[in-house]
Amino acid sequence: MILFLVFSFFCGVFLEHEAQNITQNVRLEETLGIQHFFSRPLISGGIFLIMMTGFYLIWHFSFSLLLAFLIGSCLFFTALTDLYSGYVFDVIPFLMVLSAFAIRILGGKTAFIDGILGAGIGVGIMGAIRLFSKGGVGQGDIKLMGGVGMGLGTKLTLCSLYIGFFCGGLIASFLLLARKVHKKQPIPFVPFLALGGIIALLAAPMLEHIFGLHLPWPWGN
User: Fold this and answer.
1) CA 51, chain centre distance (Å)
2) Most buried of 68, 96, 130, 133 (most Cβ within 10 A)?
């Protein structure tokens, strides 16, 4: 466990460093303060460590932990690249789909179908928002939710979207009221989608045991 947690800390530092490198020529001036905040190794490594500690306490060493680690890493990295540059790099959703696909096959037909339906829900909802808002969300957001859906499955994907939209709306309202941004200024939304996905994973046991929400493998029985 200690080795896993130490590895997680340095993995967080590494992911943040790579996010800086890949976005160094397309940085957003509006988020320079946030970029500086996350560039500190104790911050990036510490946040990733806390996330992985939560995953470990829920699933220990298992295929569930492996998939949670892969999804969490992709979401963490993509949240940073969106904050730094406004970009979601296509390779990340592709890696999420590929890794979730491979692991879900091991869980049998139910787990596999749950992933396919989750991907459809993620892409469908974000695609509909893009259509009706005339480009209110980017194509990268849609692709990312396809990867998230494949990993989380139907119920956790819906939960992650709800949390992501709630947190995004809350923060955007606060920034508007505080006059930190104006109405037409774009706000990176992927960090909220990532937050929703991570919280949904951490809340999986509560959703299953307290609310009686059955979650197929790998997140439930």
Assistant:
1) 11
2) 96
Q: What is the pLDDT of residues 178-203, one digit of tens each?
A: 766 665 666 778 999 999 999 999 99
| Residue with token string 């104006």 | 182
DSSP secondary structure, the chain, as one string = -HHHHHHHHHHHHHHHHHHHHHTTTS--GGGHHHHHHHTSHHHHHHHHHHHHHHHHHHH-SSHHHHHHHHHHHHHHHHHHHHHHHS---THHHHHHHHHHHHHHHHT-HHHHHHHHHHHHHHHHHHHHHHHHTTSSS-HHHHHHHHHHHHHHHHHHHHHHHHHHHHHHHHHHHHHHHTTSS-TTS----HHHHHHHHHHHHHTHHHHHHTS-----TTT--
The rounded distance, in Å, linking the Cα atoms of 88 and 86 is: 7
pLDDT at residue number 161: 95
Residues 6+ apart with CB under 8 A from 21: none
- Residue 137's CB: how many other CB atoms inside 10 A? 20
Tell me the C-alpha distance between 84 and 145, whole Å. Answer: 19
Reported as a single tens digit per residue, the pLDDT across 107-159 is 999 999 999 999 999 999 999 988 887 767 788 899 999 999 999 999 999 99
